Each structure stands twice: as C-alpha cells, then as structure tokens.
Amino acid sequence: MRQSQIIDRSQDQHFMREAMALASQGSALGEVPVGAIVVQNGEIIGRGFNCPISGSDPSAHAEMVAIRSAAQALSNYRLPGSTLYVTLEPCSMCAGLIVHSRIARVVYGALEPKAGIVQSQGQFFSQAFLNHRVLFEGGVLAEECGRMLSEFFKMRRAKG
Asked: Are 90 and 106 spatial neighbours (Cβ–Cβ below 8 Å)?
C-alpha cells in the first residue's frame, strides 16, 4: 500500500473538519453527507459536498464537485501538489478523476466497505497501469465521519 508520511496530523484534522462541515450542508439538503475540499499551499481552492440527488447528476460526488471547483479556481485541469480531503473513502469514479487531475495526495475519513476503492475493495492507487501516483492516508477523524453517515442513514430509515 502506498501511503504518505504525515507531516502535520493536526493540519489533516483541521482540513477534514472543513470537509465535515460541507458534508453537513449536503445532509441538510437530503444528500448523503460526504464533503470534500482541495488544498494547495495551505489554502482551500475547491469545496464540494454530495449533490447527485439535488443536482440530478450521478457524477456529483463530493470529490467531483470539489475537484471541478479547484480546477475552475486555478483555470487548470491539472492540480499538481494539491491534497484532496474527503470524509469517505473514494469510489472508483472519483479515484479515476483524482488520478486524471494529478492530485498528489488524498486524505479520507471513514472507510467505504461496499464501494471504497483505495483500501476496502481494492488498492486502485497502487495499480501499475496508472500514469500518476497518488499518496493517501485513511482514517483521519474516521469515527466522526462514520458517525455522521450512520446518523444520516438511521434518520432516513426512521422516516421510512
């Protein structure tokens, strides 16, 4: 498994809390609470939360929205040297975009046992065929990120 060295765990936690705040915004709209931010040189350059339902867009995962936002902010489809913080382990669609956008590092919170492709269902970023290597760190504020998701689905089931 390729994994980054943590230089400043408190910085990772700070930015993960920013992503969690975005996840809460999505949850308030009835979206699965996943939030993401893109950081470059210590500055947030892209933000997003899940919005496939409200946006009628199956690709509108938090990572997709944040990466699109960052690319627009920089007027560049490549985001070298950037870090993506996301509250849930990325799926295959998002992992592909992460590679294509040349994000250097991904930091995620909770594992996604059904569809997570970084660790849970495969090690996508370690595949030899990829033309870009992505460092990753999982489990940052995992309990809090997981709790947010569990509470959302518990509420959804209670509503019927």
From this structure: yes
Query: Catalytic: which of 31, 43, 63, 89?
Result: 63
In this predicted model, what pLDDT tens digit does every residue of 61-98 receive, in sequence order?
999 999 999 999 999 999 999 999 999 999 999 999 99
* Helix or strand (DSSP H, E) at 71: helix 62-74
DSSP classification of residue 125: G
Residue 6 has a pLDDT of 44
Q: Report the predicted TM-score, pTM, of the whole model to 2 decimal places.
A: 0.93
Give the H or E element holding residue 12. Answer: helix 9-28
Strand spans (E) along the chain: 35-40, 43-49, 83-88, 105-110, 135-137
d(CA 58, CA 144): 26
Strands (E), 76-130: 83-88, 105-110
- 63 carries an active-site annotation: yes
For 35, phi and psi rounded to 5 degrees? -125, 155
Mean pLDDT, residues 52-68 taken together? 97
Provide the residue count of the chain.
160
